[in-house]
Amino acid sequence: MSATPAAADELIVLGKIFSVHGVRGEVKVYSFTDPLDNVLDYPRWTLTRDGEVKQVEVAGGRVQGKFLVVKLKGLDDRDVARTYAGFEIRVPESELPELEEDEFYWHQLEGLSVINQDGQLLGKVDHLLETGANDVMVVKPCTGSLDDRERLLPYTEQCVQAIDLDAGEMRVDWDADF
């Protein structure tokens, strides 16, 4: 485990360590990837928590229900592993797989201004939720918004008309009254 991680501002959160597993220093991980075990494709993780940063290497892992059990190299003690709870798992954005045209990672959508078909600013994408049927964008009001309402918009082809990352905008077909 190294103390010299990559710059934290270019790192993308892919999961979070939440507990220990067993007595051999394994940790339990909530993975934000789909499928869950995709986070194991990254052999080195940068862990961050409250300004603390650690660089670790993954020795192995497995899916266990709705979370992962992960073995980190050099971490063999349950009590030490317990101190890793609460760390976010980050990897450099440059290591993420390239997407097809018109495909986006959630972190790319967060912060975009959401403008409806009438040119009204509904707010900015705060975060996204996975609901099973389709992903949902949580759009929160911002300076210049039509009103002060938080909106939940489906991330579907029917709703999302265009995304311009360079302009920081998303155009949607959405009635302002909803």
From TrEMBL:
Domain Ribosome maturation factor RimM PRC barrel intervals: 106-175
Gene Ontology BP terms: ribosomal small subunit biogenesis; rRNA processing
Alphabetical list of InterPro entries matching this protein: PRC_barrel-like_sf, PRC_RimM, RimM, RimM_N, RimM_N_sf, Transl_B-barrel_sf
rRNA processing listed as a keyword: yes
Cellular component terms (Gene Ontology): cytoplasm; ribosome
Key word Nuclease present: no
Location in or out of the cell: Cytoplasm
Transmembrane segments: none
Gene Ontology molecular functions: ribosome binding
Boundaries of every RimM N-terminal domain copy: 14-94
Alphabetical UniProt keywords: Chaperone, Cytoplasm, Ribosome biogenesis, rRNA processing
Gene3D superfamilies: PRC-barrel domain, RimM
Domain of life: Bacteria
UniProt comment concerning the protein's domains: The PRC barrel domain binds ribosomal protein uS19.
Family: Belongs to the RimM family.
Subunit structure: Binds ribosomal protein uS19.
PANTHER family assigned to the protein according to its UniProt record, in alphabetical order: RIBOSOME MATURATION FACTOR RIMM
Function: An accessory protein needed during the final step in the assembly of 30S ribosomal subunit, possibly for assembly of the head region. Essential for efficient processing of 16S rRNA. May be needed both before and after RbfA during the maturation of 16S rRNA. It has affinity for free ribosomal 30S subunits but not for 70S ribosomes.
Protein name, entry field: Ribosome maturation factor RimM
Species of the source: Metapseudomonas otitidis
